[in-house]
Amino acid sequence: MTGALGFETRQVHAGAIIDGEAGARITPIYQSAGYVFDSFDDGVERFAGRSARRAYSRNDNPTNVVAARRIADLEGGVDGVLVASGQAAIAMALGALAEAGDHILTTDRLYEGTREMFRGALRRQGLAFEALPIDADEETWVAAVRPETRAIYAESIANPLGEVADLALLGRVSARTGVPLVVDNTVATPYLCRPVEHGAAVVIHSTSKWLGGHGSVIGGAIIDGGSFDWAAAAERFPQLHEPRPHGAPSFAERFGDAALGAYLRSVVVLEHGPTMPPSSAFLLLHGIETLSLRMQRHVANAVAVAEALRAHPAVARVHYPGADDGQADLVARLLPDGAGSIVSIKLAGGRDAARAFLDGLRLVTQMTHIGDVRTLAIHTGSTIHGKLTDTERERLGITEGLVRVSVGIELADDIIADLRQALDAVPARELEAVVS
Ligand SMILES: *Cc1c(COP(=O)(O)O)cnc(C)c1O
After folding, report:
1. Atom 2 in ligand 1: residue holding the nearest Cα
2. What are the residue ranges spanned by the domains of the chain?
3. Superfamily designation of domain 291-431
4. What global pTM score does this model have?
5. Ligand 1 atom index nearest CA of 187
6. How many CB atoms lie within 10 A of CB 342?
7. Residue 402: closest CA among 339, 325, 299, 319
């Protein structure tokens, strides 16, 4: 019904249900653990997966299903599952694709929580990770694929420095090798970038960020792009091709190109149980309804902030995707409507200047979060990246003077005025003590 409609219409309507009893126009919060069986036999049918009716909210709650379908629609995917956080979304997606002994290729530019999970929990579970430079060429990626490689993992816009992954190139690598491309699209959102159009099989979101948009709820989403030929990849993914209990056909047979989404919901998320509370899905839906409006404003403000900060003498360098990092062509191709709203700045005076700057902010909040309507700032080297060694930080470009700003939707002039007054107040002696 909503397929031919525009993004702005679908963000309000896609997947919506009208509650039969009360006729509520907005999707209600179905605050219920389970769903009444009509009879003994009805219960049997629901558990066997032969009934379309739901059984239990751990993996199937009506409010959550609406929000998941809405995000899937906006991403151009065919199915979606919500989970309790962005971290859980990544863990569940990779847990659906890979098991002990398998190998995952990633870019070397990742959100630090993701890197920690890859180096920590997922490695302890027996997965091997190999990072290639984000700008590695197509042949290098193809050559790095092994028989046991189960996913190529990238962020469309990397957090915190905003390097952009060439999704079209990675999509070609996926098509040539039969290994699905998994893209964390949190920072771009489906308004600015739709990875499925570039060949991604799976899209991941931390819905805690711009999709929810108001800093009120933690959540994650896994979207099945419906674009990967699971039937042709039976050797890599036997879990989608094995016969199911109760004589049911395999996920690949029954769901075709949507097999992964069904497998995630009916097996992986059901087994692990990282459920998003339906009250969170309700707030998430409210956020999604204004996504395009907020993103336009976020982007316009970020561009204005980047421009203003480039001109300030206390700022040695500004990172905003595009010209700042020599990726202008790629950004124009992949992100024609804007490159998100994270602006990271490197202060000439290093860590002491960063402390003086952050402590001098009045409107902008010091906090670890991004994608809020409010502008937020953080010194990542001493917080998010604080557990890394100096060498690791240096390799990732996390310098002593680096401050990440997630630009909100306030009046741009007010944001800029606050950033400026805090920069102006950085003592001159801090500016002279230039640390790389
Ligand atoms: C925040 C974030 C995550 C993790 O999401 P949570 O909802 O905080 O668990 C994953 N990927 C990216 C790019 C993020 O910014």
Report:
1. 206
2. 7-288, 291-431
3. Aspartate Aminotransferase, domain 1 (3.90.1150.10)
4. 0.96
5. 13
6. 26
7. 319
